[in-house]
Specification:
The chain is an alpha+beta fold. It has helices at about 5-15, 35-120, 130-135, 140-290, 445-450, and strands at about 325, 330, 335-340, 340-345, 345-350, 350-355, 360, 365-375, 380-385, 390-395, 400, 405-410, 415, 425-435, 440. It folds into two domains: about 1-290, Helix Hairpins; about 330-450, Glucose Permease (Domain IIA) (Distorted Sandwich), CATH 2.70.70. Helix 1 packs antiparallel against helix 4.
């Protein structure tokens, strides 16, 4: 009568002996919302200060540029004044030469008149026009003397007029030259003052600019540190959230394993109870039919010759073979936890099937293994190319049972369920690609078209 008790012990061992979660892993630090808000506020404050100083640096640089323009304008004004002075000096020199020439002409004309008067005086006559004409010795000399008087008079008047004109021009040129000198002196003073002011202000502005740039550089360093601090606490928060999600997934997987173990234990207990009842019924029927026959002795003990220890429980039965539909089968038996499509702000390009560790993974159809082994992200993966060119991908397996180049068939065990790579629990990631590394398509309609249905998608 040890059947139900023995089976109950099996149930206890199966349920209680299920693998425990990886809870021994210490959880990463979880920054508080206040710490994250403080880091964000610090980063924003540093960024605002960098922005403010950038504005001041730009203003100081603009001030320096403005000063440079002022100095250039003052220098241009001084150069223009120097040019006007040079032009006035040239004009004054030209008028001075004209005055000198006119004065020479006056001197010549005066000398001619003086000579004529001297000759007239020597001849005993006064310089009278009538006398000069009457004293002529004949008509020819009369005409000659009349012409001479007219020429001397006209020439003298012209020379005197030219001298006056030249003197006026000289006076104007001298005035223009003096005005040009004044303008140049004023421009020179303006340029010198502008230069002095610019040099003084420029030195101050450059010093202020250097100080602002140094201060800005310090705040930029502080901003970088604040950004790193913010990234650090945000990263710690993400790591903690990922840890919590992984832990929850592990707990869920463990719970599923416990439930499956409990179901197997219950099934074993029910089978043992049914067998015991059948044995009893058979014994009672035999006793009724053969009353003189003593009842059969109980079966020998499995305790190894009277020892007190209990025997080990038989291993749980392997998973049922995958549901088949002609030449295609399911890749694994388990719970569908994620389908093809958007997930957590990104896109999931396959189907995830959660199952206990080391459960079998099946080739969905006939094909050739084109890759088997390490695969980044998956940890390990198998790629099977089917006869139509499509490729099925199996990821995260713990054990691989095929190799590259091997021909496989529908329902053949190619690997065992695992949690290799970036995984939150034992499961199979199944993909369909249109050609090796080609476009990844939704596996669900692809399997349905071949008579295989995945629950949950």
């Amino acid at each position: 009568m040890r059947g139900p008790v023995f089976v109950g012990l099996i149930a206890v061992l199966l349920v209680g002996g299920a693998p425990t979660s990886a809870g021994a892993e210490d959880p990463p630090p979880n920054p508080s919302d206040e710490q994250i808000d403080q880091a964000q506020a610090n980063k924003d404050a540093q960024a605002a200060e960098v922005g403010r100083l950038s504005g001041l640096v730009a203003a100081a640089a603009g001030e320096i540029e403005s000063l440079q323009i002022d100095v250039e304008n003052a220098s241009s004004a001084y150069i223009a004044a120097e040019g006007r002075l040079e032009q006035a000096r040239i004009r004054a020199e030209e008028t001075r030469e004209a005055v000198t020439a006119a004065a020479t002409a006056v001197d010549d004309a005066t000398a001619d008149l003086a000579l004529f008067a001297r000759n007239s005086y020597i001849q005993g006559s006064t310089l009278d026009n009538t006398f000069v004409l009457l004293d002529s010795n004949g008509p020819a000399e009369l005409v000659e003397r009349a012409g001479l008087l007219e020429a001397l008079s006209a020439n003298h008047l012209d020379v005197v007029s030219e001298v006056e004109i030249a003197r006026v021009r000289q006076a104007n040129a001298d005035s223009a030259q003096r005005q040009a000198v004044l303008e140049r002196e004023a421009a020179e003073r303006f340029a010198a003052e502008a230069l002095d002011v610019a040099e003084d202000t420029l030195a101050s502005s450059q010093s202020r600019l250097a100080g602002l740039e140094a201060e800005k550089a310090q705040y930029e360093v502080a901003l970088q540190q604040a950004q790193q601090e913010l990234l650090g606490v945000e990263g710690a928060r993400r790591a903690y959230e990922e840890y919590e999600a992984r832990k929850a997934a592990e707990e869920a997987a463990l719970q599923r394993e416990r439930e499956q173990a409990a179901r197997r234990a219950a099934e074993a207990e029910e089978a043992a109870r049914a067998a015991e009842e059948a044995r009893r019924a058979a014994a009672e029927e035999d006793a009724r039919n053969n009353p003189a026959t003593p009842p059969p002795s109980p079966p020998p003990s499995d305790d190894g010759g009277g020892g007190g220890g209990g025997g080990s429980s038989p291993p749980p039965p392997p998973p049922s073979p995958p549901a088949q539909s002609g030449d295609w089968v399911k890749p694994a038996i388990g719970e569908t936890t994620s389908c093809y499509g958007s997930r957590w702000g990104s896109f999931h390009y396959g189907i995830d099937i959660a199952a206990p560790m080391y459960d079998p993974i099946y080739a969905v159809g006939e094909g050739t293994v084109v890759r088997a082994g390490y695969a980044s992200g998956f940890g390990q993966a198998i790629y099977i190319e089917h006869d139509n060119g499509d490729v099925t991908v199996y990821g995260h397996e713990e054990v691989i049972k095929v190799s590259t180049g091997q021909r496989v068939y529908p329902g053949q065990v190619i690997a065992l369920i695992g949690t290799q790579g970036f995984s939150t629990g034992p499961h199979l990631h199944f993909e369909v690609q249109q050609g090796l590394y080609g476009t990844r398509i939704d596996p669900d309609p692809w399997l349905e078209a071949r008579g295989v249905y995945i629950d949950g998608c």
